[in-house]
Design goal:
This protein has 221 residues and is α/β, with parallel strands linked by helices. 52% of the residues lie in helices and 17% in strands.
Amino acid sequence: MIIAIDGPAASGKSTTAKIVAEKLGFTYLDTGAMYRCVTLAMINAGIHVSNTKQINDLLENISIDLLDKNGKLQIMMNNLDVSDDIRSGKVTENVSAVSALKNVREAMVKMQRNIASKTNCVMEGRDIGTVVFPNAEYKFYLSADSVVRAERRQRDLLALGDEKSIQELIEDINRRDEYDSSREISPLKKAEDAIDINTTDLTIDGQVSKIIEIVNKQKTK
């Protein structure tokens, strides 16, 4: 079974998806972390988004593992723990451009489908319900006010020792929304059959409860 959770940046997808997976006993697959790993690898190697050959070489040799370590998701890239590194401001600034690359998306989608073919999954991203798993049994689309999303992103960055003003983050989020929604390959959009959940005034527990309630209700029909 696949539960797809899509939505824009800082709408609460990752945290909600992780807890939903825990409560249902499913595997949590953070697809955004996978694209962040590729972005980090390209930054570390000094590879520009226009260098298709170097990116293809990198994709052939990259390994990404998402591990559950005492209830906390650990992101491993080429056997190194990059859980904090992939959340840096530099990666956040570049991940949209990297995610828009056709060769990167093809490699990550192949990896995601391979993982999901072996287990029940909760997957979150921007195109899970539209491109990666259009036949997912359950589809949700999380949205929220840009100011609230900026406040959430600010808290995440502060935890990493990175400071940005709310206004800067609102501008970053709006730019990313525009870029992700208008890109040619796998743009951010709500699947026609996805259930829309506005998280502006919801706690994480509220988001989780709403999704689990819907899944359980439909399972018993």
